[in-house]
């Protein structure tokens, strides 16, 4: 019963086959191969715009290089207080940007609110140049709490950010899980609502190691190729990433993978919610389930083969206060999650 992370899932058969096919023969190196040219065009077509597309192998590199292209070392990137870039990237953003600061907002809420963002930006810089000023807003879609920003929420946040001259970045590590949840197009969830640069992740949704940085505002990409090389993230055999994206996009394979993960998460969430001693913390809108359970129940599930992680208790909303004998857990479904695993977990839960 594997619910530890979608990072722990393998590679889809279609993507693995694409890698086998890409392995035939000789190809140009350093992003000058036919797969990379085709993949860049395919992604731009997917987004229905003339986007500037670049590939890297990790989500950390994608996020941090996007940020480094968007702000100066003496500026601030605003983000949700639970965001991956501020909690789980060590100090990589500071390293890549040369020292730019991250400021987290609304940490106890599942999403960043427009009210908080507007209030923060309205304060201005009290004493320039002594005070760092915000230059970037980074939004995570899905959020770290598994929530989806609606198109209206995204538009409201980006409008406020642009009003104050900020660039808007989206961390899309679980981009496709949000996309199928909203049932909208990639364009509708990005540049059409004001996103300037996107970190697009395929790794969590069926790929081996495939991330892209997509600039909807091409002027931001001016420094990217140099920063990618300087930071050691320009792959010589870049066709291995590009071939994965081509297979991922073909016949909307990404949708099939993400839809399955989301469906399994909803089934899992419904089963947990029925247990009298458990409570779901936030609505299950993507492929992640957050719940508060008794510690004894958590141990029993682990003894029976359940694999999942405890989550940061400080992020729990005040009304969901975690008692001393309880803990908050996160369970993540992937394209490989089997319906029988979900049933097995729910049965084990209700037997305990």
What report would you give on this structure?
The chain has 352 residues and is α/β, with parallel strands linked by helices. It has 13 helices and eleven strands. The chain has helices spanning 13-22, 34-46, 59-68, 84-87, 92-97, 114-122, 151-163, 175-182, 224-230, 239-249, 253-273, 295-303, 339-351; strands at residues 52-56, 75-80, 101-105, 133-140, 167-172, 197-201, 211-215, 279-280, 288-294, 309-310, 326-332. Strand 5, helix 8 (175-182) and strand 6 form a beta-alpha-beta unit. Helix 1 (13-22) crosses helix 10 and helix 2 (34-46) runs parallel beside helix 10. The radius of gyration is 21 Å and the shape is globular.
Task: Using brief descriptors, characterize the structure shown.
352 residues, 11 strands, alpha/beta, 7-stranded mixed beta sheet, single chain
Question: How much strand?
Answer: 15-25%
Residue ranges: pLDDT <50 for 5 or more in a row? Answer: none
Number of strands: 11
Sketch the major β-sheet. Answer: 7 strands, mixed
Shape: globular
Q: Helix- and strand-based class?
A: alpha/beta
Task: Name the average pLDDT.
Answer: 96
The value of Rg in angstroms is 21 Å
Q: Report the end-to-end length measured between terminal Cα atoms.
A: 16 Å
Output the strand order for the largest sheet. 1-7-6-5-4-2-3
Helix content: 25-40%
Report the total helices: 13
**Order of SSEs, N→C?**
HHEHEHHEHEHEHEEHHHEEHEEH
């Amino acid at each position: 019963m594997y619910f530890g992370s979608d990072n722990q899932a393998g590679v889809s058969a279609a993507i693995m086959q694409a890698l086998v096919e890409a392995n035939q023969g000789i190809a140009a190196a350093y992003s000058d191969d036919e797969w990379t040219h085709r993949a860049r065009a395919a992604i731009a077509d997917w987004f229905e715009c003339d986007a500037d597309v670049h590939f890297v192998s990790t989500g950390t590199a994608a996020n941090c290089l996007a940020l480094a292209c968007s702000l100066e070392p003496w500026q601030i990137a605003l983000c949700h207080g639970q965001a991956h870039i501020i909690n789980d990237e060590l100090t990589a953003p500071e390293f890549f940007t040369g020292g730019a600061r991250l400021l987290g907002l609304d940490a106890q809420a599942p999403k960043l609110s427009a009210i908080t963002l507007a209030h923060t930006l309205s304060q201005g810089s009290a004493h320039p140049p002594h005070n760092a000023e915000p230059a970037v807003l980074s939004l995570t879609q899905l959020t770290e709490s598994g929530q989806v920003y609606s198109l209206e929420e995204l538009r409201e946040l980006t409008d406020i950010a642009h009003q104050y001259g900020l660039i808007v970045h989206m961390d899309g590590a679980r981009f496709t899980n949000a996309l199928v949840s909203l049932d909208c197009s990639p364009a509708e969830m990005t540049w059409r609502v004001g996103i300037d640069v996107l970190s697009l992740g395929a790794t969590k949704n069926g790929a081996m190691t495939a991330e892209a940085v997509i600039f909807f505002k091409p002027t931001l990409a001016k420094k990217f190729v140099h920063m990618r090389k300087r930071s050691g993230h320009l792959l010589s055999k870049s066709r291995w990433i590009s071939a994965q994206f081509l297979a991922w996009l073909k016949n909307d394979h990404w949708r099939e993978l993400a839809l399955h993960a989301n469906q399994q998460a909803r089934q899992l969430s419904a089963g947990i919610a029925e247990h009298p001693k458990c409570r779901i913390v936030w609505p299950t809108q993507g492929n992640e389930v957050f719940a508060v359970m008794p510690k004894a129940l958590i141990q029993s599930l682990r003894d029976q083969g359940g694999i999942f992680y405890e989550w940061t208790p400080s992020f729990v909303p005040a009304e969901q206060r975690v008692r001393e004998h309880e803990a908050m857990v996160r369970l993540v479904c992937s394209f490989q999650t089997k319906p029988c695993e979900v049933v097995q977990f729910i049965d084990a839960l209700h037997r305990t």
